[in-house]
Design goal:
It contains ten helices and two strands, in the order ααββαααααααα. The protein has a two-stranded antiparallel ribbon. Helix 3 packs parallel to helix 6 and helix 6 packs antiparallel against helix 9. It is globular, with a radius of gyration of 18 Å.
């Protein structure tokens, strides 16, 4: 079933490592949000209550920017799948002794690896700005949240790339989805600061749970609420992963 997985994973990582501009853009966008949006909002929001303690807004924002970076990795996987279909590369790969499931697993593993790299790079740049040190005890929670986020976003965008056949439509739909996914979540602000209608939408948004669990791993702890959010995030990841495997099996090349 997983024949060729190692080669496919190596291929995905080689593609990613050779596209330097994608690496720079995926890292620079969260950093720019921290520097521009974060510093601007710090003057308006003096402090945010988080798990019973008041924290600086810039520190609250940093885990959300990590989630943004992971989201970017998942979206890039969508485009590589789309280009493989358009250029006939996918047909060539599947004509070898490689299964469609292995192709999908290779993409997801590469996105998870890229997500871990994103976490490291954003923390290296972001932590000195907020004057915070990460606790080693929270590192497993942070990495597990990044893992689930990578699986979730990669699976979601693979479904889109499997269904949509034109470049313009894929770009338009991805943009339309990206904005509400980012701003209708807890990425930029606590949910109790937004209207109740948007709050209900945010609860149905996996970005909310990714940002919250990353935030717990960086500046909080594994509380009962965070444990529930992890379970919800696991459910999102399993459902989207299963749907992505099904869409890859039905894809026409």
């Amino acid at each position: 079933m997983m024949k060729g997985l190692r080669s496919l994973y190596y291929r995905e990582m080689r593609i990613w490592s050779r596209t330097y501009w994608m690496i720079v853009l995926s890292l620079s966008t969260p950093i720019l949000y921290i520097l521009l949006f974060g510093l601007a909002m710090t003057g308006l929001i003096q402090g945010i209550d988080y798990q019973g303690k008041e924290i600086d807004y810039l520190l609250f924002l940093l885990p959300g920017m990590i989630a943004m970076g992971i989201h970017g990795c998942g979206m890039n996987a969508c485009w590589t799948l789309f280009m493989d279909r358009q250029m006939g590369t996918l047909e060539q790969i599947l004509s070898s002794p490689v299964t469609r499931s292995a192709y999908g697993f290779g993409k997801i593993l590469s996105v998870v690896t890229q997500s871990f790299i994103q976490v490291f790079l954003i923390l290296v740049v972001g932590l000195p700005l907020v004057g915070k040190e990460i606790s080693i005890a929270n590192l497993p929670l942070l990495l597990f949240s990044a893992f689930l986020g990578g699986v979730c976003f990669c699976s979601f965008y693979m479904i889109l790339a499997s269904i949509i056949k034109t470049n313009d439509l894929l770009s338009t739909i991805s943009t339309l989805i990206m904005m509400p996914m980012m701003f209708c979540s807890s990425m930029f602000y606590p949910l109790d600061m937004i209207p109740s209608t948007l709050r209900y939408l945010a609860y149905a948004n996996p970005m909310t749970y990714i940002a919250n669990t990353l935030r717990a791993g960086l500046i909080g702890s594994l509380s009962k609420q965070v444990s529930i959010e992890l379970l919800v995030l696991c459910a999102f990841s399993i459902a989207l992963f299963s749907a992505s495997v099904l869409s890859l099996r039905r894809i026409r090349i």
